[in-house]
Amino acid sequence: MTFLTVRWKEALTVVVIAAIVILPQLAMYRHAAGQWLASPYGPDEWFDFSSPKILEVLFSTAKGLFFWSPLLLFSVVGFAFLPRYAPQIVLPAAIVLPVNVYLVASWWEWQFGGSYGHREFTDLLPVFAIGLAAFFARVRGTRWGTAAGILITFAVVLSIVQMLQYWLGIIPIRDTTWELYRSIFLRFSR
Questions:
Q1: CB-CB neighbours of 74 under 10 Å
Q2: What is this structure's pTM?
Q3: How far apart are CA 36 and CA 26, in angstroms?
Q4: Which end of the chain, C or N, has fewer beta carbons within 10 A?
Q5: What are phi and psi of 111, to 5 degrees?
């Protein structure tokens, strides 16, 4: 017997609940746009899967994930230790992280507007946290642990200072160049 023949009531319940949740959104699209499925972004926004901006998304001064959140680099190193500390996370992380990077990098506006750092990775911070925990577990009690602690403290303090600069309007909301970044590094006035 298949799953659906044995548990058809539960499967039907899932379908009904999903319809109840999704139908109001579809009805709103139909009422507002005249279509059941409508892009809230409009026709002038698109994906370009043939030319993703992967290096820019990850490392650029213009919203690069690791440039503005260097702590996450330790998480990436920690992913190497996931098979030992969290093996159940290895396959999902190996699929979700690269797919997310590729999708973000393929969007026409890969910086995703005004924010401190790259906001399109916020939903993946729990995955990065698991990588960071694996990193800490691996280096704890070693000579690398102390060095890592110092570097991580520096990365966190730098991120806090830069976030304050962003809130004060010193760091622009987008298109930060290396020259501009150098000229405002750790400054609290323009």
A1: 19
A2: 0.77
A3: 5
A4: N
A5: -75, -20
Q: Write the pLDDT tens digit of every residue in 147-177.
A: 999 999 999 999 999 999 999 999 999 899 9
| Domain range list for the chain | 3-33, 54-184
What does the pLDDT look like over 77-128, one tens digit per residue? 999 999 999 999 999 999 999 999 999 999 999 998 788 889 999 999 999 9
